[in-house]
Amino acid sequence: MVLTVVLSNGDSAFILEDSNSTVRAFTLVAVGVSAVVEAARLALGYSGNLREKIPQLAGLFILSIFPQTLLIVYLAYYSSRLPVDVVLHHIMLFGFIIPEIFISVFVIRSMIKSATTKLYLSSWYPMQDYKHR
């Protein structure tokens, strides 16, 4: 595929001559970035869920929306060569990423509500320090 731009004086200029190598290079970068972002998402989700930390879960939510969703959409629709790639990326997108975005909104809201309640109650009923023996 050759992208041709016609200039105002009638001449044409070739901007992109070999898009196949460009798509391959961008796909390689997208897969690498997706792997790194996926590892960060898993770490943030794991630590945020176990420790009930709102910032880690918010980081998981942000990384799920951008760049992970955009990378999976690119890999599913624009760079797939085999039908199995399309199927696997659709499973990743509609089976994991999109439900995770909706569930994380619900979880973050409930954790904020719980943390606010704990803060409010701690101002009225301060906890006493007991030494465990």
TrEMBL record:
Alphabetical keyword list: Membrane, Transmembrane, Transmembrane helix
Regions crossing the membrane: 25-44, 56-77, 89-108
Recorded superkingdom: Eukaryota
Species assigned in the record: Planoprotostelium fungivorum
Protein topology in the membrane: Multi-pass membrane protein
Example GO BP: non-motile cilium assembly
Pfam families: Transmemb_17
InterPro entries xref list: Uncharacterised_TM-17 (IPR019184)
Protein name according to UniProt: Exportin-6 protein
Cellular compartment(s): Membrane
GO CC terms, sorted: ciliary transition zone; membrane
Primary subcellular site in the record, as a coarse category: membrane
